[in-house]
Amino acid sequence: MFEMKMEKSWFDAMYARSSVRKYTGAPDKEQLDRLGALCRKVSWQGVTIRMFKGPGLKSQIKGTDVYAVIVAKRGTPMEMEGFMGEALVLEAASMGLGTCWLGAGFVPEIINRNVNLQTDESVHCVIAIGKCDLPAFAPKRKALEKICGMNEEQLKQLGAWQLEAVKAARIAPSAINMQPWRIEADKTSVAVLEPEFVLYKKFAAIDRGICMLHAAVGAFHVGREAIWKKVEGGYAMKA
Ligand SMILES: Cc1cc2nc3c(=O)[nH]c(=O)nc-3n(C[C@H](O)[C@H](O)[C@H](O)COP(=O)(O)O)c2cc1C
């Protein structure tokens, strides 16, 4: 579950990306081929990601008409959509491309027709992709101590992979930047859990999947491969 072959380049991409809404053009052919290959790689475990070029995005996205659609089979945990979709985001970022997750910024009728949506499938999010002048990396996020419930001294006690995982989880993007996750880390695992109170639930599980992928990329950076398992309120990783 949540199996993924990580790429080393995703670590730096994670610490460089921000959402881009104004692009300088669509990705070129070579870039589209590489993104297509990544989509094939992450299309499993109940999720299919497909690239499109043409109408479908709302006018808040300017300068590109290229986007990826995340299609989920009924019964797939929504975390999987976030987990797989963020792999595409990081791959695009590692190629110098800009991206923006869109839960609202697309036209469902066009998208559903494009993917020939079946009755046992759903589309919750689309990802806009294009060339851009990447803005400086300056994510506004809650403090690590707040999302982990650990003080600086306790964080220092964590092992290298747990620390990289929680630091990477912290900077994950989320719908309206709500960061609807609670991270529990100890000497053996890092868990991404539902917090006690979630203001905006619609995309919260997708957001947590994005956060999980970041945690796994953080651990991979120090040579550890994540293995996820379902726990009460979310998922926990050992590496
Ligand atoms: C599931 C999800 C849905 C999102 N939907 C939209 C959207 O409809 N329109 C938009 O402009 N940004 C959307 N975003 C982008 C977030 O606003 C953005 O990721 C967040 O504010 C953090 O900023 P950053 O990505 O620049 O770090 C979405 C992000 C996620 C993860």
Mean pLDDT: 97
Q: Name the structural class.
A: alpha+beta
CATH-assigned fold name of the largest domain: NADH Oxidase
The number of helical runs is: 8
Q: Number of DSSP strands?
A: 8
Summarize the structure.
The chain is 35% helix and 20% strand. It has helices at residues 9-14, 29-42, 78-94, 108-114, 144-148, 152-157, 160-170, 204-221; strands spanning 47-53, 66-73, 98-102, 121-130, 182-185, 190-193, 227-231, 234-238.
Q: Which features would summarize this protein structure in a list?
A:
239 residues; alpha+beta; NADH Oxidase; 8 helices; 8 strands; 35% helix; binds flavin mononucleotide
What does this structure look like?
This protein is α+β, with helices and mostly antiparallel strands. It has two domains: 9-130, NADH Oxidase; 144-238, 3-Layer(aba) Sandwich (NADH Oxidase), CATH 3.40.109. 35% of the residues lie in helices and 20% in strands. It contains eight helices and eight strands. A four-stranded antiparallel sheet has the order 1-2-4-3, sandwiched between helices. It has a four-stranded antiparallel sheet with strand order 5-6-8-7, with helices on one face. A hairpin with a 2-residue loop joins strand 7 (227-231) and strand 8. It is globular. The two termini are 14 Å apart. 45% of the residues are buried.
SSE blueprint and pairings:
Blueprint: H1 9-14, H2 29-42, E1 47-53, E2 66-73, H3 78-94, E3 98-102, H4 108-114, E4 121-130, H5 144-148, H6 152-157, H7 160-170, E5 182-185, E6 190-193, H8 204-221, E7 227-231, E8 234-238
Flavin mononucleotide binds next to strand 3 and helix 8.
